[in-house]
Amino acid sequence: MRFLHQSSLLYLLLGTASLSSAAHSWAFGDATVTVFEKGGGAGALKEKFSPNKPLGKQLSLGASDSLKIVLTTQEDSKPKRPHQAFLHLQDSKSGLETSFPFQVKDNGKGKIDLAQKDIPTQLLSSSEPLSASIIVASFGPSKPYEGKAFELRIDLDPINSPKLEKEKPLRYGNLSEIHHIFKSDPTSPPRIITIIFTAAVVAMLPALFIAWFSLGANLNHLSKAISDAPVPHALFFLSILAMEGIFFMYYTRWNLFQTLPGAAGIGLTTFLSGSRALREVQQRRLSGLR
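Predicted structure:
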């Protein structure tokens, strides 16, 4: 029986605590909304409103007017600064909305100043009055407050107001297929240019042979050079022809990655065979053969 009594008492305390925490809620008090005319003089219109009791008439905000809201945020009817307090404007027809934060002090006193220049263009162009709501919320178990305060009609200046261009809102979804156009592969120069340069090179060959014979080139040692070092001389001559062939293939159809390995292998062969061939030539020079 004592255990049952203690359990009943514990459940009663928990139920009371849950009810007390559920009773906590945010609200506001001493709320006034004032619409000032141009110049910030005496308020043209001042109205009081309270939570869950919106104003029965619409407020009008002209092009040169300014709107000011003053209130005191409260938690359980006690002034307190919440984590967030906003004035929420919404166009009930289009569903577009925006929010403006209150400047709230530690004692809960908050205010906000608003003019047409602060309101987004999409809401300024609304043909219906905007619904103005107050939002007060914070961390903790207290229930946040959100309720309609009044309706706000925007009166634009038909002469000085800029044109309100409605832009299509961004929507995420499937887009049309994108066809990529890549840069075409580089092509060889025109054939006429190739022919001209080839003819120029071929035309220089007779001049080269004439220069050799005029400077005393001697072909009588060709048989001795080939007999003393046949492999180096043959490989050196063939590697030069092979390198020209690689350049031709690169010019016509190969890419750089196909050309480099072949050029590296032929270049190594040219270097090794050329050094052996030059060694044979040096030996003939030392023997007095010119």
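Summary: The chain has six helices and eleven strands.
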